[in-house]
Amino acid sequence: MVVSFGARPADAATESGGNQLHDIHRLSATDLVAAIAAGRLTATQAVEAALARIRALDGDLRAFALVDAEAALARAGELDRAQQAGRLAGPLHGVPFGVKDLVLTKGVETTFGSHTFAGNIPDWDNAAIARLKDAGAILLGKTTTPEFGHKALTNSPRHGWTVNPWDQSRSPGGSSGGAAVAVATGMGPVGVSTDGAGSARIPASACGILGLKPTLGLIPYDQATELFSNFIYLGIAARTAADVALMLSVMNGESARDPWSIGRPQRQYGVAADPVAGLSGLRVLHIPTMGNPEVDHDVARLMAASLDRLRDAGAIVTVFDEPFDWSKRTAYVMMRAYQRARLDYLLDRQEDRGRMDPSMVSALEEGRTMDLQEVQSAPMLRSEVFHRVQALFEQADLIVTPTVAAPPPRFDQGIDDPFFVNGKQGTLRGNWYCYTSPHNITGHPAISIPMGFTPDGLPAGFHAVGPWFGEQALIDLAAAFERMAPWADRWPVA
């Protein structure tokens, strides 16, 4: 069924000899490319290291919905033979990667985390996935997501609970939880996520990695069902700023299938030799809260330390605590209207309805009761918040907040269960992931950067938003923090 929205080299290492696979998984994509190009490693070794890591860890963590080991090894063998003949595929030659199970992958089952799409084999790749493959990256498989990516937690009736590698009693966030867990633990150095309300950035914060949501249209999202009102993005999960730059350089550019990307030339990104020096004079607008009443005390301390690092490097930090309408209700209405338009028919199929996550059913039922005037007004309100945010960039180069207001909840937290911050009860949406969704509807790029760990050993993220096409500034900021407060050598599991 096709449903679209929209021989190993003789010197390859084994787990018991040669280059030890347990070391290879620690290499960044950038370092892997260099090692393979220099002949110190093969693409097959890189893939085998990632597969070994998946075999060792994924039974407990459940980051992958599907692993296509046979195809990955076959592709690695092809690349190794091409290299022996003097040909490198491209800038990602031999790099293994995972793709969130919401993104179309040719010939590989894409179920959107749902029993209702079991057996769905797309006959085409999303444009950015095709570019990664053409550049030499090797698809390992599909990473887990809540059903249709509908919540900021990663569990589904199809795949169960994905858990946080730093503390398996906690959630990795969502909806790109599988991608974040895979990258955080070395099941491939990079991953492709999606982001409709923070889904690339929230799990990046919860898992201690980088998570980028680009400018609208920079990476084409040509499978969107609502192209012109689209607020969903392909994102990048990575451990290093250099890897974000490498992935983004390959994935961005025009696609005739995505109107937001048409006419936009492909851009190249990199990391400055001294990114910390680039912070001098940077105008940073710090917004402590965005409708949420509290920030967890430990997260607030990490945020304050991050702002101090910026000041010490010469950045000009201004606190913005004026009343501001972020139109969060507009983002919520647009999400529910989109979900209803795309998936409402499943509610009328009793067999499908019974196999779906109850919270997905509730979301679709809520979509049926949305006020028509509110839905019709959403595009106008989206435009208004865009103009308000644009005005903020007249006084700042970057806007910064925590990525989420507190450490991640328990793995079995319900989307509608109470969530407490500093002992005060609220909702998960209102108390925890409060900072990300406005920038999905305004189109501005944003990144979650690791900013340290709580006393309980849980990661927390520093969220930065740039002007349209300000990705290089976000990469520079991530690279600076990588120097000032390194995280890439800290692993949740050995």
UniProtKB/TrEMBL annotation:
Enumerate the UniProt keywords alphabetically. Answer: Transferase
InterPro entries referenced in this protein's UniProt entry, alphabetically? Amidase, Amidase_dom, AS_sf
Q: Where do the Amidase domain residues begin and end?
A: 46-474
Q: Pfam families this protein is in? A: Amidase
Transferase: present as a keyword of the record? yes
- Give an example GO molecular function: transferase activity
- Give the coiled coil ranges: none
Question: Does the UniProt entry include the keyword Transferase?
Answer: yes
Matching Gene3D superfamilies: Amidase signature (AS) domain
Q: Quote the PANTHER family the UniProt record gives.
A: GLUTAMYL-TRNA(GLN) AMIDOTRANSFERASE SUBUNIT A, MITOCHONDRIAL, TRANSAMIDASE
The family note in this entry says: Belongs to the amidase family.
Q: What is this protein called?
A: Aspartyl-tRNA(Asn)/glutamyl-tRNA(Gln) amidotransferase subunit A
